[in-house]
TrEMBL record, chain A:
UniProt protein name: Oligopeptide-binding protein AppA
Biased composition (Low complexity): 33-50
Domain of life (superkingdom): Bacteria
Domain Solute-binding protein family intervals: 103-460
Species per Swiss-Prot/TrEMBL record: Thermobacillus xylanilyticus
Residues spanning the signal sequence: 1-26
UniProtKB/TrEMBL annotation, chain B:
Gene for this chain: txxe 3780-appB1
Keyword match Transcription: no
Subcellular location: Cell membrane
Listed InterPro entries: BPD_transp_1_N (IPR045621), MetI-like (IPR000515), MetI-like_sf (IPR035906)
Annotated organism of origin: Thermobacillus xylanilyticus
Source superkingdom: Bacteria
Sorted UniProt keywords: Cell membrane, Membrane, Transmembrane, Transmembrane helix, Transport
Annotated membrane topology: Multi-pass membrane protein
Family the entry assigns: Belongs to the binding-protein-dependent transport system permease family.
UniProt name for this protein: Oligopeptide transport system permease protein AppB
ABC transmembrane type-1 domain span: 95-305
Signal sequence region: none
Amino acid sequence: MTRIRSTALIFVLLALVIAACSGNNGNNGGNNGNNAGSTNESSSSGSEVSGEIKDGGSLIFGVGSDPLVLNPIYAGDRVSLTIDQALFAPLFQVNNGEKTFYLAESLTPSEDGLTYTLKLKEGLQWHDGQPLTADDVVFTFDTILDEKQNSLFRSNLILGGEPIKAVKVDDRTVDFKLPQVNPAFEATLVQLTPIPKHVFENEANIEQSEKNLYNVVGSGPFKFKEYKPGEYLTLERFDDYVLGKPHLDSITYRIAKDSNAALLALQNGELNVNYINPQDVPTIEANGNFEILPYSEGRLAYLLFNENSANGMLAKKEVRQAISYALNREEMIQTIYSSGEYADPAKSFVTPDGLFWTNDVTTYDNDVEKAKELLAAAGANNLNLKFIISSGNKAMEAASLYVQQKLKDVGITVEIQSLDASAFSQKFADASATDFDLAYSGYIMGYDPDAYRILYQSDADSNYSHYNNPKVDELFDQGASEPDPEKRGAIYRELQEIIAEDAVIYPVAYTKTIVAVDKRFGGIEEAVLKPVVIFEDPSKLYLK
Amino acid sequence: MRQLIAKRLIQTIPLLFFVSIVCFALIKAAPGDPVLSFVTPNMHAEDIERVRANLGLDKPAYVQYGLWLKELLKGNLGYSLVNHQPVAALILERLPATAGLMGCAILLAVILAIPLGLIAGAFHNKWVDKLITFLSYIGISVPLFWLAILLIYLFAIKLHWLPSMGMRTVGVNSAADVIKHGILPVSVLAFSFLSSYVRYVRSSTIGQLREDYVQIQYAYGSSRWIVLFRHVLKHVLLPIITLLGMSLAELVTGAIVTETVFSWPGIGSLGMTAVRGMDYPIIMGITLFSALLLIIGNLLADVLYGFADPRIKSSR
């Protein structure tokens, strides 16, 4: 008797909980509209929609962790890079081959391609009012080259063992002297954001400086206001910004470590901008207060073949081709990204934002019979492959299960090994690891194809596939020093064909990232959606 | 008494030393290192090696431990390998948030656990007892992150009564605002502590009710409530002292899950990030700090026990 009663009690309690959760669903749409204004804590609520751009208001980004180092010569994590985009102005940026100048007024290569002359705009200022001059650019350059200063960009400024030199000509002009011709140098300069000499020149160890996180002095549209670790970081408008006074009064980056909680905070209006997963798009759409913006990250997601693996089979081109034949790209994209809307099919190792990109290359796709033939010809019977994944990574999990199932059809057994995140990255990057065959990964390399040599040249540092083709090595070397764009294009198109034909990797998709932006904010097009950092120039955003 | 305290404090030194060795060994036995957590394919091996060497990560583990210990003896907990800020400052900066959160949660849990446990014990096997026990089972078995998300959904999204995350509204610096943000995380944590405390109090109440003095009180005509709250309560409070002593360490290590879900800027979420990034100076700092507090908390509980129950003191 008592047992029946307590069981009944459980049901009553459960029913209460469920009722409480779902009770409001019926009038969801109507409610949310009204509530958005009242729960939005910091944005001014009296906003009328008008055609004109108004100044004022503040925007809250959701970020997944604390920034590590805001000093741009050390920043490498997504959060620091995102904040730096508002805090520091770059020299110039490149979009679809077009340059947008920020601090720089012009960049002129010399006839022989060995000197680049950078001219800065007039009257540039740091956030603390000090002038920004050629000295700062040279200081930044020298700090990166200084081995004691721990910068991870150092090797980018070394060509053929010789460092590039930065020489001050006058207060607004710097000459970069290259030891050899390097058409990719402009792409290197894009990543070089000047840091203030007067702030750091007396620091022995710049990396440990407190000024990398607190009271950071930059040159971007917003200046440092307040950082509460684990909570938020706030920037406020910098009126003397090089491209004109920003519209918003302030930008805040709120740290929301749990992605589910961040999604709820977004729905609750506590965040105005946040990344969302494809699965969450319907939820946010239903909320009605957000614009959903998918955009290309310039990222390739691919299946990696470890040619070093102990069974020796993946070193055979035919086996790699056979595995590729066994898979179906469209299906794989559906499985991993739940819809083709957020990932475009990839065939080349270069991403569509890259120079000389072409998807018109050889591809092995969706032909089980052909796969079996190739495997039989290569003598690969009853092949056993190990697929490593980082535990908890949804894309890797989905990819591994898909590959496991598809390869079963051609008689290959795939064993999935789930590793903890740091163990995974160690094994993945370990050049001597022979105990795994497959992995699902991705990269963002930037727009100049020279960047890819680090992945595909036989002795390169990030040649995770352990691919070795002397022809490819040679072509990458040629491309790096070929000044004629037409000839350069031919070289990189040939490279894309060779690597596709050799089935070095199985390119899956050019993935898109999805950002939800509060509909009350405008200027998104002018601010330019950008891989990794969300907005290229946050000064253009405004409150409608 | 004084001798006892001194003896126990001296004993902590080898204990802490032991804890630090075990912790360091475990970190070093795990694969991966902090540099890997910020490496991208665009970085050259030469740069990665140079940075690793500058951070001392290329040396054998025992040398790294020796260097760390040498700095520790000088009073320096070292620098984070990931964001390069001093560890002591990082911990202290987050201490108030965690101590406040855990303090409120533990206090709330104790205040609620005592009457609930007493009542459950007194009505042993009756429906009140069953209800309270059932709820405490829920508290123990429900995953905290799930409960937290459920509460956020209910109180922040549906009812709009409370904020869903963080410790304050951006730019607002008032106690009321912090309290408003704290209600949900404190409730979640208190619920989980409550469950185990209630079970302690309940079983000890059941035990006490069988004692002779209870029968005598009944014989004198005392009512059930007077017996419970005037006499049994005092005895039941004794194990609570031990519980509180143990929870001193939890005051600083915090609740990793709860802090992460609510984006509460405490030591728990700092530790979580450090473990993910293999940032050993921070992990070591937090471990040592909490080990120290656990030892002190135990000592404090023993001393207080002596005051609360003189029989224990004399038996030493």
